[in-house]
Amino acid sequence: MMVSPSLLAANFADLRSEMEWFNQSTADWLHLDIMDGVFVPNISFGFPVLKHVAKLCKKPLDVHLMIVQPEKFVQEVKDLGAYLMNVHYEACTHLHRVVGQIHEAGMKAGVTLNPATPVSVLKDIIQDVDLVLLMSVNPGFGGQKFIPHTIEKVKELRKLINETGSKALIEIDGGVNQETGKQLKDAGADVLVAGSYVFKAPDPSDACTRLKAL
Ligand code: DX5
Ligand code: ZN
Residue 183: which pLDDT band, with cuts at 50, 70 and 90? Predict the structure, then answer.
């Protein structure tokens, strides 16, 4: 199982120390949640802060944009050195064009679905994306409860990927812990995002390794 700890649950007053344990850990990617207070009812951090985090982080950056018009920021995300840029299906009128722009910039393209958006909307884009991020909470906040229906969505997405021969990875975000992580793995997930479960654990590095071992 791949693990992408979410910086949203980190100690923002001591990001240098957080990046020290993180770089030594078994984590695969670092998940960065950018919010605009419009697409979601919260604001997290932006590029001026992430520029410094990116310098300290030695692992690939998995950027999750919870903003309207994410296509405006392809260059900024690229400048961070990001590996993956995730945009919300609900935020892109011209999703196919945005996916192309992300690829042209040399990044992997991920499409994110809110809990109420069905997997079936991906039918005509699944061949073009590198990853699908299914939200298992309503985006905007860390520490929320996992929405159980996500398990059915993972199974449906796995089926769509297998049927179409798409190479897309399945990533899940929100309320992931040991228990929900196991259910997600069994349903066919490839990557788990975990904020509170990892960063608020007595030993974050150990929490990371527990998820990886699922
Ligand atoms: C929520 C964010 C998540 C968040 C997950 O809008 O997209 O990445 O950090 O936090 P936990 O793992 O605490 O639910
Ligand atoms: Zn996220």
Answer: very high
Residues, the chain: 214
Tens digits of per-residue pLDDT, 78-100?
999 999 999 999 999 999 999 99
CA of 123 to the centre of ligand 2 (A): 23
Q: Does domain 2-212 have CATH number 3.40.50.920?
A: no
**Residue numbers annotated as active site:** 33, 173
Ligand 2 mean position, distance from CA 173 (Å): 6
3-class DSSP string for 92-108: CCCHHHHHHHHHHCCCE
The reply to whether ligand 1 has any atom less than 6 angstroms from the CB of 6 is yes
Ligand nearest to the Cα of 62, by number: 2
| Of 41, 92, 85, 95, the residue nearest 65 (C-alpha) | 85
174 close to ligand 1 (CB < 6 Angstrom):
yes
pLDDT at 50: 98
Domain spans of the chain, in order of start: 2-212
Spacing of C-alpha 132 from chain mean position: 9
